[in-house]
Amino acid sequence: MSAHPTPLRAAALGIGAAALAGLAFTAIPQTIPTASAAIAGGRGATVPFTEYEAESAATNGSVIGMDRTAGTLASEASGRKAVTLSGNGKYVEFTLTAPANAVTVHYSVPDAAGGANYTSPLAVYVNGAKNQDLTLTNKYSWYYGSYPFTNDPGQGKQHHLYDDVRAMFGSTLAQGTRVRLQLDASSVPVTVDTADFESVAAPIGQPAGSLSVTSYGADPSGAADSGQAITNAVNSASAQGKVLYIPPGTYTVNQHIIVNNVTVQGAGQWYSVLHGLGVGVYGNYAPNPSGNVKLSDFAIMGETVERNDGDQVNAIGGALGGGSVVADIWMQHTKCGLWLDGPFDGLTVRDNRILDMTADGLNLHNGISHVTVTNNFLRNLGDDGLAMWSEQNADHDNTFSFNTVELPILANNIALYGGRDNSVTDNLLSDTQTQGGGLHVANRFNAVLLAGTTTLARNTLVRTGVLDPNWQFGVGALWFDAQNGALNGTVNVSDTDLIDSSYEAIQTVEGSTVSNLNFTNVRIDGTGTFALQLQTGGSATFAGVTAAHVGASNPIYSCLGSAFTINQGAGNSGWYTSTPYCGPWPAPNYTYPGDGGTTTTPPTTTTTEPNANLAAGKPVSASGSTQVYGPGNAVDSDAASYWESANNAFPQWIQVDLGSTRTVGRMVLRLPPSSAWGARTQTLSVSGSTDGSSFSTVLGSAGYRFDPATGNSVTIPVPATSQRYLRLTFTGNTGWPAGQLSDWQVYQS
């Protein structure tokens, strides 16, 4: 996709000329949180609203942030700042820079005792006169605990603290109008993050010759369930080859609407709404996927209040190929915006808004090809914003372009898991929250290994990357993971800006080698720690790569020695050193000018020797493994994944490279702490080496008991020894005829 998407979309959707006027799209560039709009450089979605930051508006409330501590109101806000209104009369007031007749407010209200749902009013004043009350709720926010997140406060630490509410003013407000959001009657504080003001066009009228869902009994008042009526209308429109129109209204739909060879058009995202528990529009699955489906100009509003990966509660799902188009759909409060299952070929997804999901914004799963995902705006996602997951079959020849992805609460803004010949171009990504980075390319989740040429070009990443709570080290803004096998497909990264990265800018990590990376004209400006963090062997070429405001005193972290090769071309500056740092993980140091210096709270846990797990993310190998249970699973700090050796073939070994000769005093070995893993005794010995070829015994063979009652964990004191390579050799297992290990931790003392 070399050109920016055009604002008029009627022709591609097969909509009649009578509706053209209603489809006109007035693009207003969004503002970039806490940074100059010049940062975006024409990247990201062109959206029909202007996004205003609350902390930059007039207020008598309390500005919170900047903060990057996971699970805080400031950290989960756009730009890591927001305004908390506590007490009646507190307000935040925006002055419009363009006319608007509608607003979407990104906000948070506290959770209720016991996890109960409640609502709270927020008054809207226009030039001093009250216009209306917005109804805020905690129903769709405040999840707790570990993945999958639930709405049970008893599960521990909070996540996903914000939600969105939208409203129209009843008239168009002129440029210069003051719009105040004020607490008049709320007994709880309200935190305002952003306000998106826009001019919503009049409703699109019914196209000539089309059918209407109301003619088949659909109820626009929402009083009756319209699921079967809309299904009947879809089937009739498909059979007659006519457009199906959804008039203005809110239609209760508590089921999937199955579509194939049909055009469904609403009166606009703000007017035609499908709402309900389990609401979704789905195509038929492979091997007979739906084709020639055109969906446009309506909203899908779900009622998903926690994440359950077994529930099919996505806004759009199934398989939609054969020239299908999904455009101008507002998706909110479902599990995923679009979770599409292949194999299928040929789809365009554009000009959509995807907000407040409990999982991915969009995932192309299993052998999907020739899909263009462009000019979409995504915010507050529960997992990856945009993802391609090549499970079983390779996703290929797909493009993610000109999208804006803000605030993924878990995982990455954009991720590619395996596949071949895919492109990610001209996107704007910001404010990653936990267990991910801005842009991720990986052989993970049992994906078909990366092949061909992957193109990452002209993307801007702002405040992406995080402190991973399991690894206890940073995840890069741009990171590459070889957990399930060598990542050696060609990856070309060009004309990319990594701005104010929370930890390192670029990272390689886990499992096997990462090679064939080519970085050209990449600007690193602001990192909490390193410019490069190299944690697995391989190679990369750098030309025109510059770095400034690097937080760590040494710009490269690596304990790999010669195992990773840096090939330098012309034009590099500010990041290279021939003697990388290898030692305790430093607390981040933010010097990017947009942060105002070192104002960000460091992580609550700073990993320093002797408490650092020396094996986490280090190169690992084994004598053999079974199926997908590769050796990388033993050092990924994920207790649920595990290495299993070849079966019925003792002895078997697993080996880790600590990167340099280190003092070792203790190891912790774990198996998955599941009731399905009964108690067992594994017999093993420990040997070590400083060169990887000559090994000596560190601990002789002994039996170690793994018991679910104690977390399936064994701590092994090691006589003080200095080794670079450690090897565990398994000769027996009373629970399974193989060596098994989910987490191998190595400590100095």
UniProtKB/TrEMBL annotation:
Q: Which SMART domains match?
A: FA58C, PbH1
Which protein, by its recorded name, is this? F5/8 type C domain-containing protein
Q: What positions does the domain F5/8 type C occupy?
A: 607-749
Pfam families registered for this protein in UniProt = CatAgl_D1, CatAgl_D2, F5_F8_type_C
UniProt superkingdom? Bacteria
Instruction: Give the organism the record lists.
Output: Kutzneria viridogrisea
